[in-house]
Amino acid sequence: MTEIKLYNSKTRKKEVFEPIIPDRVSIYVCGPTVYDRAHLGNARPVVVFDILNRLMSHVYGAENVTYVRNFTDVDDKINATALSRKEAGAEGTLEELIAERTEETIGWYLGDMAALGALEPDHMPRATQYIAQMIEMIEKLIADGYAYAKDSHALFRVREFENYGKLSGRSVDDMIAGARVEVAPYKEDPMDFVLWKPSSDDLPGWDSPWGRGRPGWHIECSAMSYEILGDSFDIHGGGNDLQFPHHENEVAQSCCAHPEGEFARVWMHNEMLQVEGKKMSKSLGNFFTVRDLLEQGVPGEVIRFVFLSTHYRKPMDWTAKKAEEAANTLRKWRGLTAGIEPAASPSPAVLAAVADDLNTAGALAEMHKLASAGDAAGLLASGLLLGLLGDDLGDWAQGPDVDLSAFETQLFEARTAAMESKDFSEVDRLKSAFMEAGLEVRMSKTGVKLVPGPNFDASKLEAL
Ligand SMILES: [Zn+2]
């Protein structure tokens, strides 16, 4: 069997992966809070853990892998979005507007992630479907002294869990010094975090032993992973922005409520995404959603390829140049593999790279070698392991088969004539029409080369 090595955030080491139950793999990944379109950064963990799921399915058999990713559908941001819609005159109760918004957002999310070639997890639990299990878990934590109720809240007593901070490598006192903790009259200690909080009448709420209210964010992942995967499972994933406090709090809740289990054996965290070297933010004007990119004509497969070109534990820099290079490579590879049957298995070098802590950049480098060697069947089988080159994502590269050489000649001749006449208007007209069609125009003394970019639209050439 292929040896898989994964970097475990908990031990800060790359380790040989061994499932808790031999030949079965269980994975839990923190999913989105569903109140708006997924931005490009939200898509990175989806692609990273899709690769993990595909690798595990390849090695252990898809039927032996259980992959869970939740939807957080109870959250203050969702409430705020619904509230502002109601204030803007939208019809329906707040609860109906919330349900409408979460339903719509989940649909968008699944559509956008499918466009990136991400397979759907086996389970996609929603927080609101697990309120009873969350209440039960909180009651157990209170009964065992790890939590307490005060002023309609339930809180976790952080200092009762001696391993608190171990995952993210912080001491409780450092965390207090970092002082992002909120002091509140209902807290015994500022570090304690909310398990349950009261809801006013105009907010969604459920009856509980502590009054009508709603869960804090962290408890849902503990309750859902326990219900679906049990008290011990193999891999827990998420972005490294979730490591503290979210994952730290998940560990505390789960290990105290179910001390017989070990909760997650391996923790995997992906690094964040930047755009053209800068943090993506609305104020910098470089904020965009997955849907924005798709609508601009950047194919989902190109986005996926760009993501895979950087190792998941390194910051990923999204650039237009990378997207263009990815499109060119994929066009070439799709040309090579068109009409070919994939080899029975991916190339050993590609598989070994992916199995080495998801070294997707290394896997792509190996695929370039296969392409150079003309091993189309091996290239295709390897691509499929990475969710590339499959029929599901393929339409964009097919397009009408356009021979660009006539256009290249046309521009070259126009330029030769212009050198004589000193009238460059025809050259300029052709150049801007080619660029408008998504072609990169490369001119040299000896000729013209037109290179299709990711937004190439052959129909725009028809008028020329
Ligand atoms: Zn979570």
From TrEMBL:
Oligomeric and partner information: Monomer.
Species this protein is from: Cognatishimia coralii
Top-tier EC class: ligase
Family statement drawn from the similarity comment of this UniProt entry: Belongs to the class-I aminoacyl-tRNA synthetase family.
Keywords: Aminoacyl-tRNA synthetase, ATP-binding, Cytoplasm, Ligase, Metal-binding, Nucleotide-binding, Protein biosynthesis, Zinc
Entry EC number(s): 6.1.1.16
Protein's UniProt name: Cysteine--tRNA ligase
Catalytic activity reported: tRNA(Cys) + L-cysteine + ATP = L-cysteinyl-tRNA(Cys) + AMP + diphosphate
Positions of short motif 'KMSKS' region: 279-283
Superkingdom, taxonomy of origin: Bacteria
Record bears the keyword ATP-binding: yes
UniProt lineage: Bacteria, Pseudomonadati, Pseudomonadota, Alphaproteobacteria, Rhodobacterales
Cross-referenced SUPFAM superfamilies: Anticodon-binding domain of a subclass of class I aminoacyl-tRNA synthetases, Nucleotidylyl transferase
Location of the motif 'HIGH' region: 32-42
